[in-house]
Each structure stands twice: as structure tokens, then as C-alpha cells.
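FW: tagging you since you asked about this chain on Friday. Here's the raw sequence from the shared folder, copied in full. Didn't touch anything.
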Amino acid sequence: MKKTKLLILIIIMLGILYGCAEKEPDIVVGAKDFTEQYILGNILVLLIEEHTDLTVAYKSDLASDVIFSGIRTGVVDLYVDYTGTVYGSYLRLSETLSGEEIYEITVRELYERYNLRMLDKLGFNNTFALAVRSDIASEYNLHTLSDLARVSSNFAFGGNSEFLSRFDGLPNLKRLYNMSFAEEKIINGFARYNAIADNEIQVVEAFSTDGILLDFDLVVLEDDLGFFSPYQAAIIIRNETVEAYPELINVLQMLSGVLTDEIMRGLNYKVDILGELPRDVAEEFLRENNFIR
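HL: got it, structure written out here
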């Protein structure tokens, strides 16, 4: 009899322990499948854990359509996305507008169509960019794309095949800025950075927050006429999640306007070039800026 009671007690205890182990997290933070998103996802997780009593799970390596489907269905509670992606890919809007107009429309339409909130912009814009070596920028006094246009005929341009043909790529960019390069080369992937380092090209297509820009000492030129669509980063969160945990808003809004292009580029550099772990980079950033202890 004693053995039977002991066995029953063990079974009950194992059931309790198993139930605790299987307890669902309060919040699921999502991230897409590239370096910048890994860093941002970890920033969100660490911030929430520091300033609330909520349990947090982290799901990364999600493609854009997967993560957007996930937040609409409740698989994901919040993540960082980009206004240009939401505006064009999710909302299927195409009218050319200013960055602020696109942000305002995105905020409104996400709420009305999907009951999702887009919070304040984080501060950086991960959009297309043109970059040159720092010595070229100094020699020709290049700060903007208008500056580049005046001397573009002296330079060879290199970029991905898609950028050299798409409507929001090189053809219409040249038309707006009245650019004319001496040569245009299709150079896909990482190879284009080696090409500019070897002076095979002098102007390269990039993304404004690429960490690799720092490794090659490249200067991102300002898009002073506003050709490239804005891809301003902001947190998207389910309205049901906000209603359940209203304390989240003040915590997440701590990041409003904090992450500039330069800061995000530096964080990406630490992971992509220096080989640091995204969570370590996220934690260091938060500690240095007094967001966590």
C-alpha cells in the first residue's frame, strides 16, 4: 500500500513538473531571417524581460510573409518590420508618397484591416543606397546623390542584376538625378564590395544599414531628392496583446527614435564582420544606453 501511494505521489509530481515545463509563454517575439532582425528581436526580448514579469519566447528565421501571417493569427505577438515592406508587400499600396505619409497610412491601415498596432519609428531607415569609398568621397566632395550626379560620368557602377533593371532601382534613379555612369556592371552579392575595394567600380549599390559598409570604409550618400522608398523600422504588435499586457507599450516605446542608421550599421557590423552573437550585441547596446542593468 505504501509503495502504491508513493508511486501515485511520484506520478502526480511528474505531472505537475511536466505541466510547468509546458507552460505557454506570455509573449512571443518574432524576427525575420537576417542579421539586423536577429539583433532587433533580441533587443525586444531583453527589454521586455528587464522591465516586466512576463515570460518571453523568441522565434527567428521567419520569412516576411510567414511572420506577417504569424502576427495576424497570434503565433507571434510582436516584431520589427519596415514601412516600405508593410506598405507595398502587405497592404498592396503603390502610390509614391513621402516617408511620413507612408508611415501614417501604414499605422492606420494595419489597425483597421488587421487590428495591429505599429508603434513609433525606431529611428533608422534600411533602404537602398549608393555608396563610394571614403577616399573618393573626400576627393570629389561627395555627400549626396546630387553631388554624385555631377561627376558620375567618371565612375563605374556595380550592383545586383535586379537593381539595374527594376523600376525603383538604377534606371529611374539616373533619370531623376540626371546621372550617367561610364559603365554599369552586374555584380551580385558580396562580390560587389570586393569590386569597389579593387577599384573595378567606384559606386556600389547597398542597403543603408549594412554592417559591411564599415568593413570596406564606404560612405553612404544621402538620397537628397528622396528617390528610394522609405523602409523605416517600427515595432508591430497585436492589439489583443496590448489589451492583455498594457504595460508593454511604455516599455517598447523606450526604443522610439533611438536607433539611427549609423547605430544600426554598427550593430550589424559587430555580428556580420566581427562574428559576435546577436544576443550579445543586443545586450551590450541596451546596457550601454541604460535600458537594462
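FW: The radius of gyration is 23 Å.
HL: agreed, and Residues 151 and 184 are 15 Å apart (CA to CA).
FW: great, closing this out.
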